[in-house]
Amino acid sequence: MPTTLVHPCPPLADPAVIDALRGAATAIISDNLHRLPGAGGLLPQHKGGAMIGTALTIKTRPGDNLAIHKALDLVQPGHVLVVDGGGDLSRALIGEIICAIAQSRGAAGVVIDGAVRDIATIRAGDFPCFARGVNHLGPYKDGPGAINVPVSIGGMVVEPGDIVVGDDDGVVAFPPASAADLLVAVKAQERREAEILTSIREGRYVGAYAK
Hints:
The chain is α/β, with parallel strands linked by helices. Helices cover 27% and strands 27% of the residues.
């Protein structure tokens, strides 16, 4: 009989690191990760607002959300549920109820490489929900699945415990061990880009490749 393999949750990312990176754009984070990691095709379905938290990863059979239901019992404040549904859009893996449960337990958001439903309610809310698409057809609940294993979402590998960031441009993830160096690089790029925009407004911008 299909089962759900459950591994313990890694430690949550340092709250100070999360706060320091809060508001950093996925585009700038991606630039400073050599533009390599990033989930293709997963876009915000909610009203708007950025997301950052620690990955609680879920691997599930396409069209089946048994493992997601089991993972809800593990959610701690600050977790992002990262669901590898194989990119399948034939059935929604989550909807209004799962989003409400996750939000009530302090989750920072959900990322679904698959479909969602109850989209009118999700779009009207501010709970971060990123997904590949929408389908009204509901899921099976038979399994199998696995929790807190490496997953692939939109071509990006996410390890349990990775830091996950999402905004209007999409989703990116990286290991907590790289966060300190990444933060320095992100802040430096933010300052450079702010200066470029100022130079444009003041009419003194001369081009990215000017000597």
